[in-house]
Design a protein that fits this description.
single chain, alpha+beta, OB fold (Dihydrolipoamide Acetyltransferase, E2P), 2 domains, three-stranded antiparallel β-sheet, 7 helices, 10 strands, disordered C terminus
Length: about 290
């Protein structure tokens, strides 16, 4: 059971660009129309009248449902469609919802055509038919997205790594600054070059920083938003993720795959995740 939950919670790349959504929707609609018209499966060859019009109806339904799912869904359910929280489980729910919606409209469309034009089928049969037709393009699409984003994100990661490694060393560091805590005697006094990252832990934050050749960690009571405001004047510190602030001066490498990006710091025992918009933001800010 834990294995299944872990698998469903694995990050998965989401389709975010409007152009990609439009192209995918039209290609799926075209595929359904072409497949039905050319191969005529599921007794479609027995349709009375224009087969082209009949197949076009199913293609248009597919196109419409996909456009609604891609563009209207994220507006109505913003939390569910959060790109940084998109995972395999949500992607499966999204696909199932699309196919179910298409199945219901296909069934209604076929019923509307009446018995004199086409054979009538149950809703369950239409769901099975829609899944049978949709499984091939959906599988192809998932593999394509995985491969394309892996290639793209790897390229971006290398570019960002080069940019970070070429960042000019700041010679005029503010001698000291203080990360304050709501609890007395927990403040941390650091030089800018010592700070590695700050991770949100509910009502606390975990601060990782350098002490000589070692890395120390300390939990203090404060919010990451408060500390972000206090550190905003330092141009090497970024809010790279909803739960992380990072000092780019100490980042040695960026890695990327189809699902996400991570920042690596020498001797740090964990990687620092970044949001999907972070690479572009970094490139713009340090160019």
């Amino acid at each position: 059971m834990n294995f299944i939950a872990s698998f469903l919670n694995k990050p998965f790349p989401s389709i975010e660009l409007p152009r990609q959504k439009l192209v995918i929707s039209f290609l799926f609609g075209l595929f359904v129309y072409t497949f039905l018209f050319v191969f005529q499966p599921f007794d479609i060859d027995k349709v009375v009248g224009s087969l082209a019009v009949y197949a076009l109806g199913f293609g248009f339904i597919t196109l419409s449902i996909m456009l609604i799912s891609f563009f209207i869904g994220p507006l109505l359910f913003q939390s569910f469609f959060d790109a940084d929280k998109w995972n395999i489980g949500k992607n499966m729910v999204f696909i199932f919802t699309i196919i179910t919606g298409i199945s219901i409209l296909n069934w209604l469309f076929n019923t509307y055509m009446n018995e004199d034009i086409t054979l009538q089928h149950s809703l369950l049969r239409f769901i099975l038919i829609t899944f049978a037709i949709g499984i091939m393009p959906v599988t192809f699409l998932l593999f394509f997205i995985e491969s394309k984003l892996h290639q793209t994100n790897t390229t971006i990661a290398k570019s960002v790594s080069n940019q970070i490694q070429n960042l000019p060393v700041q010679k005029n560091h503010i001698p000291k600054f203080i990360l304050t805590s709501e609890n007395k005697n927990e403040d941390i006094e650091l030089e800018l070059k010592q700070l590695i990252c700050i991770k949100s832990e509910g009502n606390y934050v975990l601060v990782s920083y350098k002490t000589g050749d070692q890395i120390a960690k300390k939990m203090i009571r404060n919010t990451i938003s408060n500390l972000e405001k206090s550190l905003e004047k330092h141009d090497t510190i970024y809010r790279c993720h909803r739960s992380y602030l990072v000092n780019l001066e100490n980042v040695s490498q960026v890695t990327g795959n189809a699902r996400n990006f991570n920042l690596l710091v020498a001797n740090l025992d964990f990687t620092i995740p970044v949001s999907r918009s972070f690479p572009k933001s970094i490139l713009n800010s340090i160019a």
